[in-house]
Amino acid sequence: MTDLYGWLKVGHLFALIAWMAALFYLPRLFVYHADAPAGSPASETFKVMERRLLKAIMTPAMIATWVFGLVLAWQGGWFTDGWLHAKILFVLLLSGFHGACAAWTRAFAEDRNVKPGRFYRIANEVPTLLLLVILVLVVLKPF
Question: Where are the domains of the chain?
Answer without folding.
Answer: 2-140
